[in-house]
């Protein structure tokens, strides 16, 4: 019936005209999406998947306590429960003739896809992302149904169509199984602050260019105020009473409703009229009238009198109990049953099973999985042998050998690219902090010099603290270093970079091995707060050493464990770009060194992790030309700029060249020009360093390479992540310039 009501609400609104629905419950509903009024979705279907939460009454009957028609959740948990239980008790399943779920999921998927305007378009499942509490369910369901799991940033609207941004270019999307609430799906027409949706999606939906399952706008059916009118709507639309009654509800928007609510406040549940959360869910506005204070009751009565249309009362429905094995014994717990129905051309089909949510204790206040409730499988028995149909791959069946998968979403590659950049950025910062901190105790002047050259240009240390340390008072510099190392709120501190590593890694979690994820986890947790006030140099150095080792472990896992496909390529591209920028900074500072400044040269070699190589070649003879050659020009040194450029060029040649922007070769051309400049300037730079040390040619060269890295990041982003042509001159990098 929800689908029929939605067709009328967004269509002729005959139910309002006939007096079966108050206009305020539709036109005043925050989930009534006015831009979609008059729009008929493909096939005329609004609700492809419907769910309802049922409570068992003391007499054994059932009652609906809430329903979902917008973006129903829980079906993935039901599927996961069934697969686990079925694999654990296969003989019991067969003996009890339990009906399987595969046919239901197959019907759900196939009938939605049958409405698609194109047969060869991608079919995707739109999720809010890994920070959503139901993300596991979304990932599990997409894998089972063979759908591409995407976020809003993965999709783009072009010429009235929806496309998936992949590494191979834009692919047409025909169907979107939606798990994002309607009002978050298009920031252009609904919530402007939403970062979860796709700009322009509502316009494509109006034109029928994509199938959305469910169609946008179903949230208007989920408010408790609608429950007050469902019995009458059933009689008006179907000519019959509800087979399973809804929870008795009184809307306070009428005179009768206000009087009824006032008379029964101590025996009912009071809720916001448009609260879309299920009754026993976390964050629900529901309050027991009998538990309100006298002051609260006075406020509530005043609200009902003045703004009764925003309030409903519902009968206090007791939940049924079920046996649960807990703590080594069987106990009883309150439960609710969530059931699902899927649309087919012949009518809705109910899933032969469901999901039971079990409260943590006898005093139920919430049945939210996120608040600690458990879930259980529901079996429906059949009369004959169970259907053998399954969407899972048969065990033992030979597979076609493949060494590539579907073109990955661009967003995933973007996250891996920045994961490489952030981990390299963190390692570079830590090496600088370690070099400065290790010299604080023995040589504050050397520490001040290092801070001035490597921290001050990036606002990591203040000029006043450096001057005081150079004069022998390093108290302020110690405090600033302590803030850099441990303060989680420091805008330029180590925690900020480590937090970005964790964020990008979490967004690309499904593309990282368990060992790699564990390494990232310990890396980002390394900078724990110190036990004592002040900067304990030994403790700080121990922590910094740990971060360097864990960053090296991440690099090693990437080098040895990741197949040489897109995942590895973009992680390595990000690392090489970031390391090039870091080394350019060191080279620029090297140009300011003198032959007699041995301590400063040693510090630079420590930061560049090239001290052993330098000593093996030149012993302790510090020469500016030799130093620049090692850090800038030597292609055999994995830390040198020349090595990074060669690696970048090699990696770029492995990327696909499908779209016009990719085939333009701008990224490869940028790196090639930088390498040619480096090779051409080789002799001139070394000669200039040996003769006068002014470094004019060196400065021109490093400036050119640094600018090339910015252009390269932009070119990769435009060609492989955004699929756009950059028209602005001098634009900043894709995410940030720092």
What's the arrangement of secondary structure elements?
Layout: H1 2-9, H2 14-17, H3 23-27, E1 49-56, E2 62-68, H4 75-88, H5 90-95, H6 102-113, E3 122-126, H7 135-145, E4 148-150, E5 155-158, E6 161-166, E7 169-178, H8 201-207, E8 211-213, H9 224-227, H10 230-238, E9 249-251, H11 255-263, E10 268-272, E11 287-288, H12 294-307, E12 311-315, E13 320-326, E14 329-342, E15 349-350, E16 353-358, E17 374-379, H13 410-438, H14 444-454, H15 463-470, H16 475-486, H17 494-507, H18 514-524, H19 537-561, H20 566-590, H21 598-607, H22 611-618, H23 624-633, H24 641-652, H25 660-663, H26 666-691, H27 696-722
Parallel strand pairs: 3-4, 3-7, 7-8
Antiparallel strand pairs: 1-2, 1-14, 5-6, 6-7, 9-12, 10-11, 10-12, 13-14, 14-15, 14-16, 16-17
Helix pairs in contact: 4-7, 13-14, 13-17, 13-19, 13-20, 13-21, 13-27, 14-15, 15-16, 17-18, 18-19, 20-23, 20-24, 20-27, 23-26, 24-26, 26-27
Can you walk me through this structure?
By secondary structure, the chain is α+β, with helices and mostly antiparallel strands. It folds into four domains: 2-224, Rossmann fold (3-Layer(aba) Sandwich); 248-315, Dna Ligase, domain 1; 408-562, no CATH class; 564-738, no CATH class. Helices cover 45% and strands 13% of the residues. The protein is built from 27 helices and 17 strands. The strands form three sheets. Strands 1, 2, 13, 14, 15, 16 and 17 form a seven-stranded antiparallel beta sheet that branches. α8 (201-207) links the parallel β7 (169-178) and β8. The protein starts with a helix and ends in a 16-residue tail after the last helix. The relative contact order is 0.08.
């Amino acid at each position: 019936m929800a689908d029929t009501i939605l067709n009328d609400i967004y269509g002729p609104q005959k139910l309002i005209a006939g007096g079966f629905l108050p206009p305020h419950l539709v036109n005043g509903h925050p989930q009534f999406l006015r831009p979609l009024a008059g729009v008929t979705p493909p096939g005329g279907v609004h609700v492809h998947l419907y769910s309802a939460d049922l409570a068992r009454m003391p007499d054994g009957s059932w009652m609906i306590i809430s329903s979902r028609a917008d973006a129903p959740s829980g079906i993935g948990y039901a599927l996961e429960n069934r697969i686990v239980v079925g694999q654990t008790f296969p003989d019991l399943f067969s003996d009890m003739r339990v009906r399987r779920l595969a046919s239901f999921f197959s019907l759900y998927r196939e009938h939605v896809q049958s409405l698609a305007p194109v047969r060869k378009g991608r079919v995707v499942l739109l999720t809010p992302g890994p920070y959503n509490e139901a993300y596991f369910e979304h990932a599990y369901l997409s894998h089972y149904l063979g759908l591409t799991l995407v976020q809003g940033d993965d999709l783009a609207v072009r010429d009235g169509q929806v496309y998936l941004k992949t590494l191979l270019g834009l692919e047409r999307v025909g169907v979107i199984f939606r798990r994002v609430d309607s009002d978050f799906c298009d920031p252009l027409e609904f919530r402007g602050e939403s970062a979860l949706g796709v700009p322009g999606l509502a316009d494509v939906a109006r034109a029928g260019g994509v199938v959305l399952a469910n169609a946008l706008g179903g949230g208007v059916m989920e408010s408790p105020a609608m429950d007050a009118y469902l019995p009458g709507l059933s009689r008006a639309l179907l000519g019959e009473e509800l087979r399973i009654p809804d929870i008795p509800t009184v809307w306070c928007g009428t005179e009768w409703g206000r009087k009824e609510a006032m008379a029964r406040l101590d025996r009912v549940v009071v809720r916001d009229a448009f609260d879309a959360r299920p009754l026993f869910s976390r964050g629900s506005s529901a309050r027991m009238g009998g538990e309100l204070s006298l002051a609260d009751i006075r406020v509530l009565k005043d609200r009902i009198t003045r703004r009764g249309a925003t309030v409903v009362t519902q009968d206090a429905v007791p939940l049924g109990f079920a046996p649960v094995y807990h703590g080594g014994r069987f106990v009883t717990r309150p439960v609710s049953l969530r059931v699902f129905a899927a649309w087919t051309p012949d009518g809705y089909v109910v899933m032969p099973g469901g999901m039971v949510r079990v409260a943590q204790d006898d005093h139920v206040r919430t049945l939210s999985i996120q608040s600690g409730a458990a879930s259980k499988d529901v079996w429906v028995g059949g009369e004959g042998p169970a259907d053998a149909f399954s969407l899972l791959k048969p065990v033992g069946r030979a597979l076609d050998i493949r060494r590539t998968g579907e073109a990955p979403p661009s967003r995933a590659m973007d996250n891996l690219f920045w994961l490489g950049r952030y981990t390299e950025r963190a390692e570079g910062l830590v090496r600088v902090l370690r070099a400065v901190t290790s010299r604080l105790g023995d040589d504050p002047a050397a520490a001040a010099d290092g801070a001035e050259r490597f921290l001050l240009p990036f606002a990591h240390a203040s000029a006043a603290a450096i001057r005081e340390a150079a004069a022998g008072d390093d108290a302020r510099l110690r405090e600033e270093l302590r803030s850099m190392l441990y303060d989680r709120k420091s805008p330029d501190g180590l925690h900020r970079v480590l937090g970005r590593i964790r964020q990008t890694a979490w967004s690309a979690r499904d593309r990282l091995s368990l060992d790699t994820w564990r390494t990232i986890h310990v890396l980002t947790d390394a900078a724990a707060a110190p036990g004592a006030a002040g900067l304990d140099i030994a403790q700080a150095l121990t922590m910094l050493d740990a971060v360097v080792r864990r960053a090296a472990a991440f690099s090693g896992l990437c080098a040895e464990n990741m197949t040489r496909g897109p995942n590895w390529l973009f992680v390595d591209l990000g690392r090489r770009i970031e390391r090039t920028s870091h080394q350019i900074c060191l080279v620029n500072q090297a140009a300011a060194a003198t032959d007699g400044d041995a301590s400063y040269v040693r510090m630079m070699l420590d930061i560049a992790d090239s001290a052993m190589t330098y000593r093996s070649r030149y012993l302790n003879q510090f020469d500016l030309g030799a130093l620049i050659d090692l850090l800038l020009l030597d292609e055999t040194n994995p830390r040198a700029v020349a090595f990074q450029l060669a690696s970048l060029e090699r990696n770029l040649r492995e990327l696909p060249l499908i779209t016009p922007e990719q085939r333009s070769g701008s990224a490869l051309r940028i790196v090639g020009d930088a390498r040619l400049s480096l090779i051409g300037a080789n002799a001139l730079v070394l000669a200039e360093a040996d003769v006068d040390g002014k470094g004019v040619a060196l400065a021109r060269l490093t400036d050119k390479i640094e600018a090339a890295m910015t252009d390269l990041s932009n070119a990769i982003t435009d060609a492989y992540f955004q699929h756009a042509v950059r028209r602005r001159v001098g634009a900043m990098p894709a995410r940030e310039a720092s």
